[in-house]
Amino acid sequence: MSDIVRSLADIVGEKYVSDQKEEAFFYSRDPGLMPARKPDYVVLPKTAEEVQAIVRFANKEKIPVVPMGASLSLTGLAIPLRGGIVVDMKRMNRIISVNEKSRYAVVEGGTSQGALKSYLLKNYPRLRHSLPDAPPAATIAANVMIHGQGRLSQQHGFNSDMINGFEVILPSGEICPIGSGSMTSEWFTRGAPFPDLSGLFLGWCGSTGIITKVAVRLYPNKKMRDVEIFITDDEEIVPEVVYEITHTEMAEDVLIFTQPLPSVFKDNHHVSFYITGDTEEELEFKRKVIWRALDPFIKSNDGGFMSIPPGVKGSLMEMPQTSAARIADIKKGGGFEYSGPVVPVEWYPQCARKLVELAEKYDLAYSGMIRIIAGGHCMMYAFAFTFNRADADMVERTKKALEEVSDFALEIGGLYWKPNVDEQNMAIERMHPNTRDLMRMVKSNLDPNGIMNPGNWEVV
Amino acid sequence: MLEFNVNVCKNCPTSDCLVKCQYMDVDKDTAREQMVKIYNGEDSFVLHDCVTCYACEEYCRRGNHPFYLITERREEKDILTTPRAITNQWVNIGEPTGKDRLGDVKERVLSLGFMPELLQLVRGRLFEDVMPSYLFGNDFFCHVVFIHFAKPSVIRERLPLVIDKYRNLGVKEVICMHDECYGAFASLAPAYGIEVPFTPIHYYEYLYGRLQALSDDIKPLNITAAYQRPCSARLSADKQHYVRDIMELIGVDLVHREYEDENALCCGEVMGWLHGYDLKDDLQKRNIDDMVESGADYCFFNCNACQNALSEKVAKRGIKPVHMIDLCRMAIGEKTEMEV
Predict the structure, then answer these.
(1) With CB atoms counted within 10 Å of each terminal CB, which end of chain B scores lower, N or C?
(2) Amino acid B2: pLDDT
(3) Same domain, yes or no, for B124 and B53?
């Protein structure tokens, strides 16, 4: 056992540290296409104090530290680009408290989406959180960290907007509550009315600190839920359709998908929206208001509501949806990756055309998966391609298509969502110089030794 | 086109085709005048307002085919009945793929068309004399639905290919599990000059025969039920007596309703595509209110599309939704999906 492993074992216990090749292999990759890079060590802390000790030790030894949730970003955000210690947060999975009346839950930094969902269903059936369409193992803190989106994003913004603060371990090893939790024992606001310090950490992909506790906002969980799909063959009117739906303020989630397979989805754009209610009357009222808002498109024959077969409806009503997993295997071999720039909704037509252009150019199966955010201020447009992992040529074509998406997104002025390291560097280059300088100041002051997830958001 | 004789129409004493229409308010003189205009290739409000319920095919007692005339003229004039996206979606769904699902096909075969729900229904003793001889897949999709979309050209183009598939399998007797399939082979194909190399049998007729054969096993259900008659049943009006015959055999009291037989209301699904929320909602409310007022415990369906559209809604009003086949299976003591 090396000295470093011994020191880490002293912190977390021998069982929860490894420098063995099996663990190194497993922690060197995520399900996406980013090149693998092995860590030197893997640790699984159980407490914030252990995380503090790990970070202090790493700082002293100048060893990189890479925090990891479930490593499901697909863009390599938890791949240790410069080796070092991967800090797997999964053992910190406690749901610490729920404040029912103020509607928030405090959970540890490794708590999974699935754990909170099932806990709330069992103990607080009238409450829910914004569940992303990711596997249930995805962690809440990591999703917040990457500005994930979920089932309530159309109403309330990015999942990172739906928090009341967090506890973070700074690169120095200090523990720091952000939000009302910094002054009281209650987590009822993230920043306001004081300076909001959460931006020093959110979106930085663990390169400025490790979240050990997060206060997640909870929202009413209505008794009934349903979905409708409005379809059109004209991508130009999709932004107008979204505008009318969001104007009603009646929809919970609004998603768009476009894909050529199976044939029922060919040639059309599908705007699906969810409605909820505590009574049949409430649900039907919302349905009626939205249908009527879209009447002009029906009258002009530009779009209409499709009948949803029971099988398809079952899949759409799932939370999280598992349809992406099925799409991922269309080419067999289970490869699936997407680039999801965040762009204004009115850019839908050009994104839709680019997706088809790239799929044709590289001969790939595709899917456009779009989530409307915060009442239509923007959307995440996922250019998704599926490929056979055993087909090297197809993998290469997919990589090229995704690179073109990155170029396209930047060219039209979009912001990458959960950008890989190359995309981060492209974004940094494009930024206003003063913004870039401010980011550099933040990073160098918080992490002078550059140990936190190095390679990510490095402004040089 | 199924033949339309304008002289028959001109001399019609009732003009029931449009006068009885439940979606347009038309008097006798206007009805006749509009049908003649349509026949002559002129524009008519009927071409724009018809909701494609198919009922005029049945209202006309003189053997004319008003609905097919309306449909042909709409296509000639490029009048869309549904938004483009919906029409295209159905054109794509029905595109032959060669991905069929075949049972042990014999000369006598069940055709499930392209309705996957039917795969779950055709079980038990009612079907033991024919199963596992069955066909399923979009290559067996009859395409009659395209009269809703005023696209008879799609039927003319694809129906011969569908019939070729049957021909290649050497089937002699096809039990059609949906009215539209039966209508396709019994009336549309002959009208379009397409030879049908087998005998189509409506599944009502088949069910009735099987129930008679199993009559010793029938325990009357002693329930009251309302029948949701689908639009496609208008294409085989001569087979509708089997509904009452079958209900009588299995001890179901078919409730008397305002919206029954010729006066039946559509499930509303297609109306939503065409006209949005209000017409669909109005139809469904009136229809279900009528079922409730008639005292029905069950609502039974013939068409899976109607069942998908209305099941949840009738269940919320305290009426049990069930497919007609399941009712028959219940009567011979078999467990159905709704009971398991």
Answers:
(1) C
(2) 75
(3) no
What is the domain range of residue A49?
A: 3-88
Distance, in angstroms, between B249 CA and closest chain A CA?
A: 31
Best to test chain A binding among B77, B92, B139, B285 (most A CBs inside 10 Å): B92
**Lookup: tokens for B49:** 């307002």
For the segment B327-339, the average pLDDT, to the nearest whole number, is: 86
Contacts of B272 in chain A (CB under 8 A): 304-305
Do residues A198 and A338 share a domain?
Answer: no
Distance from CA of A63 to the nearest CA of B (A): 57
Residue corresponding to tokens 């206060």: A215
Q: Please report the DSSP string for A323-353 in residue order.
A: HHHHHHTTTSSEEEEEE--EE-GGGHHHHHH
Whole-angstrom distance, CA of residue B85 vs CA of residue B82: 8
Q: What is the DSSP string of A124-151?
A: -TTEE----SS-TTSBHHHHHHTT---T
**What's the pLDDT score for residue B340?**
38
In chain B, where do the E strands start and end? 101-102, 108-111, 134-136, 173-176, 199-202, 223-228, 252-254, 298-301, 320-323
Q: Which CATH number is A159's domain given?
A: 3.30.465.10
Average pLDDT along chain B: 94
How far apart (Å, rounded) are the C-alpha atoms in residues A51 and A41?
A: 14
Task: Give the CATH number, domain containing residue B224.
Answer: 3.40.50.1860
Percent of chain B with pLDDT over 90: 87
Helix (H) or strand (E) holding A97: strand A95-99
Distances, alpha carbon A147 to alpha carbons A65, A157, A202, A215, in Å: 21, 10, 7, 15
Q: What's residue B339's pLDDT?
A: 52
Pick from A105, A217, A107, A214: which is nearest to A168 by CA? A214
| Partner residue facing B277 (CB), from A232, A292, A297 | A292
Chain A closest-CA separation from residue B83 CA (Å): 4
* Interface predicted TM-score of the whole assembly (ipTM), two decimals: 0.91
What range does the domain containing B96 cover? 90-207
pLDDT, tens digit, for every residue of A88-124?
999 999 999 999 999 999 999 999 999 999 999 999 9
pTM of the prediction?
0.94
pLDDT digits (tens, 9 = 90+) for B115-141: 888 988 999 999 999 999 999 998 999
How are beta strands A65-68 and A85-88 bridged, if at all? parallel
Return the CATH number at A76: 3.30.43.10
- Quick one: average pLDDT of B96-104? 88
Kindly determine whether residue B89 and residue A295, on different chains, have CB atoms separated by under 8 Å: no
Percent of chain B clearing pLDDT 70 (strictly above): 99
Pairs of residues, one from chain A and one from chain B, whose beta carbons lie less than 8 Å apart: 77
Residue A248 included in any domain:
yes
What pLDDT is recorded for position A26? 95
Mutate to test the interface with A, among B84, B282, B307, B308 (most CBs of A within 10 A): B84
By residue count, chain B amounts to: 340
- Reduced DSSP (H G I as helix, E B as strand, rest coil) percent helix, strand, coil of chain B, to 5: 50, 10, 40
User: How high is the mean pLDDT of chain A?
Assistant: 95
pLDDT of B332 reads: 97
Q: What is the pLDDT of residue B338?
A: 59
Task: Give every CB contact of residue B33 below 8 A, 6+ residues apart in sequence.
Answer: none
The pair of three-digit structure tokens given for residue A296, joined into one six-digit string: 């002009």
Residue of A nearest to B48 (CA): A299
Q: Is B316 on the interface with A (CB under 8 A)?
A: yes
Q: What does the pLDDT look like over B170-182, one tens digit per residue?
A: 999 999 999 999 9
Residue range A170-178: mean pLDDT, rounded? 98
Contacts of A292 in chain B (CB under 8 A): 276-278
Interface probe with B: pick from A232, A241, A263, A283, most Cβ of B within 10 Å: A263
Label residue B40 left, alpha or beta by phi (over 0 means left) and psi (-120 to 50 means alpha).
Answer: alpha
